[in-house]
Every structure is written in structure tokens, then in C-alpha cells.
Fold this protein.
Amino acid sequence: MFWLIPVFGLILGALIGSIITIEIPLTMAKYLSVAVLAALDSALGGIRCIYEDTFNGMVLLTGFISNAVLAALLAFLGDQLSVDLYMAAVFVFGIRIFNNLATIRHHILNRFMQKHNMHASQHKNDMP
Amino acid sequence: MKKHTIPRWVPWLTLMFMLIGLFLAQELRIQSAISAASADPKTEVLISLITNLENETAVQEERLALIRKETETIIQQSTSGESHLTELQNELALQQIRAGITALEGPGITIKLDDNHAGLAAAPNDDPNRYVIHYENLLHIVNDLRNAGAEGISINGQRIVVSSEIRCVGNVIMVNTTRLAPPFEISAIGHPENLKEAIDSSSTYQQLSLTGFPSSYTVTDINSYAIQLPAYTGSFSTKNLTAVSEEEEV
């Protein structure tokens, strides 16, 4: 039940976020939303890596930071050029999130199917 | 994946999810704040902003109208000042004319008088005073001309002004403290007919002409500028004068 720990982390983070008011200017809201997407993408990517057994904490963290920074830079540049460049980040993160989610779903399904099959085969074997 | 101990991904993912939770909470707060701001209060703010601007515009327009009015008043004042100045200048010119300190021209009469040399020659034993033009003669003629509405009079180039005297010093006539010698030429600007009538009915002139003094006069046309009067070149003494103020006058 180690899954619950990150979930608690999510809840804790949300609680901290709602209790502590970090004064963020309204103009920064766009960057924060991109950061949320980057974090979500990184977290899902991390989960995927767990299933693929390629998880690396540093990769996760640096990926999150670099993605968030790049996305923020894109958003800033877009603001300066009055082009919604942050949409590119949103688009990419969205695709990656869905991809990661699909991969995770596949892995979970595979595991479930494997377990089910094992059970089934065990049942078969048990059968006289 | 090792299930017996805490897997190494747990702290990382926990950290990640904490961050996600934190960001999401903040983002939600901001978005709710934005939506709250973009709802009624923002509209109200905008409405109040518009109202304020409209009020300000009204105030500015009022000020503009006031300034325009002021400008108009100033222009009027300046023009009226100008016209006042012209009025004053005209008044000054008129007063100068009245005072006789400007040369004038116009229609009028010229009277020539001379001593009765012929009479004196004919009667050498008679009193010579009977054959010369006296200052009273000139004074009376001038008075007759003034009575007939002469607007300007000069005797031998001496303009008769308010302070002019016609007097006798010894055997010379002085006008404006200037000695005059016969023949005398009295010029007067005024209505020629009136002046002619005045001279015709002047006892002094009649007497002089009847007693043999060389006397003649020429009357100009009413539209003529033939009569030329010089300006009074003397001074006006005002040493002892004090103008009575209007309040004192009343």
C-alpha cells in the first residue's frame, strides 16, 4: 500500500497550498498552470517508469524542473511576443500526460491480466 | 520493485504529488480569485470606472466651457480696451483741437484790416490814434466771430486760444505775447455764412470800413479747406490750477 503515500502527499500538498497563501501575481497564474501541467506530466512519467522499472528520482526531479522552466520560459516569451506560446507547452504536456496515462493503463491492465491469467491457470491446474 | 521495504520511488513521487497538490491548490485559488474578480465586482469596477470617467469628462467639459467664456471675456475686454483706447485717442485729438494746439483747416472767413494811412495823410493834424487799428477793434471782431460760432480764430498767424490775450502795449498790439503789426489778417474757421453775417453786422467792422480803414473779407465755400489756422505754440500755465474732482463737483 505504498501508493497511498504519494496520494497522502497530494492531499498534504493541497492542504498546505490552501492554508498557506503564497502571494502570486495574477500575471503569474499562467506560469503556475503550466507548472502544474509539468508536475503532472512528470509524476505520471514517474509512475510509468515504475512500471517499466526504469525509475530514477533524479531524472524525475530534473525532468520536472527543466520542463517547468522551459514551459515558463515559453509562456514568458509568448507574452513578450504576444503569441500564446505557452499553449505549445500545454499541448505537449497534455499529449505526454495522455500518453503516460495510456502506458500506465496498459501496464496496469497487463499486470491485472497476468495475475488473472495466473489465477486462471492455477485454477486450471487445480482442476482435476 | 521491492515490496518488503519502502520503494525508492515513494519519496520522489510523494514529493512530486505534494508539489502537484500545492500548485493545484494555488492555481485553483488564483483562478477563483480571477473569476471572482471577473464576475460582478469587476463589472462594478468597470462601471464605476466608466462613471468616474464620464463625471471627469463632464467636469472637464464644464471647465473648458468656463475657460472659453473667460477667453471670450478677455478678448472682449481687450477689444473694448482697444476701442476705449481709440476713444481716448479720439477724445484727446478733439481736446487738442479744442485747445488749439493743432493746426486746422476748413471753411470760413478771412478779414483783412489795415491802418488808415490815407486818412492820416489827408488829415495830418488830426489825432493819429483815429487812423490806426486798435486792439479793441481786433478784440471786438474776434468776439463777433466767436459769437457767430467760429471754431478757430487766428490773427496774423497767432492762434487765438483760451489763454490768448489781445492787448495793447504802447503802440503795438500783442496776441499771445507776440507783437503784431498791421495789416491784420483775421482768419476764422466756421460756417462761412454765419461768419459773413457776423462781420456784416459787426459794428466794429462796419465802423472801420465806413471810416476809411482798408478792410475786406473773403468768405470761402462751405466745403473748402482754404482757411488754414496754425497751432498755438505757446504754453498753458497751470501753476495754480487744481482740477475739481467729480465728487466735489457733485
